[in-house]
Amino acid sequence: MVFNAEAARRAIQAGFDGVELHGANGYLISQFLSSNANLRTDQYGGSVSGRIRFAIEAASATVDAVGAQRTGIRLSPGGTFWGVEENDVLDLYSALLTELARLQVAYVHLEATVDKEVLVKLRRAWPGTLIMNPVVPMGAKQTGRDDADRWLRMGADLISFGRAFIANPDLVERLRNALPISPVDEATYYEGGDAGYLTYPTYQYSA
């Protein structure tokens, strides 16, 4: 836990407002939560309380380093990225959210990687600020205005937009005025040139 705490300290020293622990999408924290990737037989595996231990200790170390008000965490309940599986999603994440609430982290950021009914129950289990990513990351659909409005009605406090910001330099205006959102061209990802990242136009109004 020393590494994430030190990274958090350095981020704040560099001028960041806060840090978000990546507990989603099959990365390290997600692997500890997983029922098929985490095959440990010690205190960090097996039961729900064992599998959430690493996430809680990582969050606690970050809170100690930079403060709860500067610490958030991103989670993908039931996500199957890179082959991870979770066979007890509601119990697992309800227990995790209970412990995160005790730490009073600034927010939880959930991805729509499980059925809506489960996500709504997790929203009820989490007493703090909830950021919602309404569509599956790396999926076919980008988050749009309708997705955002639906989750705001269902209890989210904030909505995260990823790919839509790449393709729409004026995304806030488009959302505010219910304008069409342009799709992103994934063929230009990580190409090292200007095409894609710097060439998307703002919305062109008709005369």
TrEMBL record:
Origin superkingdom: Bacteria
InterPro entries according to UniProt: Aldolase_TIM, OxRdtase_FMN_N, Oye-like
Boundaries of every NADH:flavin oxidoreductase/NADH oxidase N-terminal domain copy: 5-180
Alphabetical list of Gene3D superfamilies matching this protein: Aldolase class I
Database matches in PANTHER family: NADH OXIDOREDUCTASE-RELATED (PTHR22893), NADPH DEHYDROGENASE 2-RELATED (PTHR22893:SF91)
Protein name in the entry: NADH:flavin oxidoreductase/NADH oxidase N-terminal domain-containing protein
Native species: Actinomadura meridiana
